[in-house]
Amino acid sequence: MKDLIFDGKLVIGIDHGYGNMKTRNEVFKSGVKAYDEEPAIATNVLQLDGMYYVIGESHKVFIANKDGDNDYYILTLAAVAKELELRGLRSADVILAVGLPLHWMTKQKDSFRDYLMKRKEVSYRFCGKYYHIRICDVAIYPQGYAAVAASLQDYKGVHMLADIGNGTMNTLMITNGRPLSDKKFTDKIGVHECVKRIMNEVQAECGKIPDESVIEDFLIYGTAEVSERIQTVMRREAVRYTEMIFDKLSEYEYDSELVKLHIIGGGGCLIRNFGKYDASSVEIIEDICATAKGYEELYNAQHQLRKGA
After folding, report:
1. Are 165 and 191 in contact (CB under 8 A)?
2. What is the overall mean pLDDT for the chain?
């Protein structure tokens, strides 16, 4: 897809995950650490208003309101800078296309938009390079849904979308291509819940505390550079987590004989590696940037409708 530019403004889709920030072209961990002085050896440093922010060395701690602190604002500036760097730009007028969990859209949409637009014009440095941007607008869409919106015309019968992120799982029922507004759910059972369980069980049974990055690699690839004893515990807890996910989906009327399941987000790799499921009724969308791309596509579709009106 070519760059979306409307009236000279560049549309940038950003998926604000608890585990990772995603744009159309970039993925990086959603951690932020603030310093009064420039860190000596850190990379990915964003400088704004005399403060230094190290980006991407950890994950974001779950908060119910994404505008509850300054982190996602700083992460948004970093995401924009990464997209501008790919285009060889140092300044731009931008439109942000972003999302919120399905169940929180109504209550948080306005405040999240105000949060991202609190400074319509901002200058900062990222990775040693100067950027100047003007945030001209923020469009907010349902998280997860955006990844499949363009394909809804093909969704005949009953479908379920499960967006399994690091902090939450968002679930939506779709019938004959029509999302059902009264059957959308948000649960705090994201991938980090599995990571915590693995860490606790390995410590209890093996007397070891594995680094979080080792557990994440194991969940993504199905193996890790640790002993088989530790991997056995990790594998058992990963299987239990996927069973918990399918139990929750069953509460929301998932039945493999009646419903086609579409899984997006980082949790898709857990289902693929450790889950027990009927592959003929489950689609795992492995493009981790699918939702960020979907935000841009939804904005483009809305813009085209406005032009034709």
Report:
1. yes
2. 90
The encoded tokens of residue 218 equal 């194991």
Which pair of tokens denotes residue 104?
């929180």
pLDDT (tens digit, 9 = 90+) per residue, 278-291?
989 999 998 989 99
- Residue 27 pairs with which residues in a beta bridge? 22
Distance of CA 58 to the CA centre of its chain: 15
Q: Is 163 helix (H, G, I), strand (E, B) or coil?
A: strand
Under 8 Å CB-to-CB from 181, ≥6 apart: which residues? none
What global pTM score does this model have?
A: 0.89
The answer to whether 167 and 190 have CB atoms below 8 angstroms apart is yes
Cβ contact 52:35 at 8 Å: yes
Contact between 136 and 95 under an 8 Å Cβ cutoff? The reply is: yes
The DSSP bridge pattern shows strands 91-100 and 9-16 to be parallel
Pairing of strands 9-16, 282-284: unpaired
**Cα three-residue angle 47-59-206, rounded to 5 degrees:** 140
Summarize pLDDT for 105-154 with one digit per residue, the tens. 778 889 999 999 999 899 999 999 999 999 999 999 988 888 888 888 88
